[in-house]
Amino acid sequence: MPLVPMSEALAGRRAVCAFNAVQLEVAEGIVAGAEAARTPVVLQLSENAVRFHGALAPIGEAFLALARSSSAPVVVHLDHATEESLVDEAIALGFASVMYDGAHHEYADNAARTAAVVRRGHAAGVWVEAELGRIGGKEGAHTPGVRTDPAEAAQFAGETGVDALAVAVGSEHAMRERTASLDLGLIARIAASTGLPLVLHGSSGVADAAIVDAIAAGMRKINIGTHVGRVFTDAVRGALADESLIDPRRFITPGRAAVAAEVERMLRTLTPA
Ligand code: G3H
Ligand code: ZN
Predict the structure, then answer these.
(1) What is the CA radius of gyration of the chain?
(2) 189 CB less than 6 Å from ligand 1?
(3) What is the domain range of residue 243?
(4) What is the CATH number of the domain that holds 101?
(5) Residue 1 included in any domain
(6) Is 213 domain-assigned?
């Protein structure tokens, strides 16, 4: 049961967790965690991670191959793409899901660009996520209080035909503590006004119990990035305390194992089989 579309990952369940990986070994940990939990997972590669590698194809092909060989259902997703050309490249490569992030554009521009991406995505059978209402914390932006308006979200859904919507409901990207306070009433109102699966970004800053409440209120995809990086790096840092260590496998192995264990724990807690 390898590479699957988002509709299949979500079938029969309330939500799916989506973990960001910058490099292959973290992706291997994420997939191993999903296999252990016997639960579908979304493996996300962001535009920022693509920039880090300098190109989509080498790392994207590796993620796709990893998903194909997994015993767990895995959706390979392009995350936070602001460049339409990168979305097209991911679709051509075989990604089942893409996020076009036009939230930095004015509403009308964002809607027009998103609608065009949706048309091309749907022609290829690809699930398209978009964002409305800036989710704070990216590149140092601090935008407390930004919220998605339910009526505007409904209009955006109708104008674009998007499959899922990332909304601003109290979380921020790159939080180091899991202390965000979500507006559960707003989540429910946006879910009702749009009829769309909603996506919680910045979930590293949200406690497990609050994520469970957000899923009950209407969140269907839970994006977790910073937390995965922290788990990997903490384990690597611990291994590197041995200054005689030279072989990179000696510190990457505990990092990958720590990611697998935490992903399994989160999947069992947040999206149980
Ligand atoms: O799109 C990715 C997520 O929103 C990750 O956010 O790094 O704060 O968990 P996070
Ligand atoms: Zn995000």
Answers:
(1) 18
(2) no
(3) 6-270
(4) 3.20.20.70
(5) no
(6) yes
Neighbours of 35 (CB within 10 A): 18
Which pLDDT score, from 0 to 100, does residue 132 have?
A: 85
d(CA 219, CA 175): 19
Would you say the C-alpha torsion 114, 117, 119, 123 has a positive or negative sign?
Answer: negative
Task: Report if residue 123 sits inside a domain.
Answer: yes
pTM of the model: 0.96
- Over residues 188-198, the pLDDT tens digits come to 999 999 999 99
Residue 79 known to be catalytic: yes
Ligand closest to Cα of 20 equals: 1
The rounded Å distance from CA 235 to ligand 2 centre is 24
**Which of 135, 201, 208, 230 maximizes ligand 1 atoms within 8 Å of its Cβ, making it the mutation to test the pocket?**
201
Q: Which stretches within the chain are classed as H helix?
A: 6-10, 24-37, 47-53, 57-68, 84-93, 107-123, 150-160, 184-194, 208-217, 226-239, 249-270
Is residue 74 one of the residues assigned to a domain?
Answer: yes
Number of the ligand closest to the Cα of 44: 1
C-alpha 173 to ligand 2 mean position (Å): 6
Q: How many CA atoms lie within 13 A of 46 on its CB side?
A: 16
Number of folded domains in the chain?
1
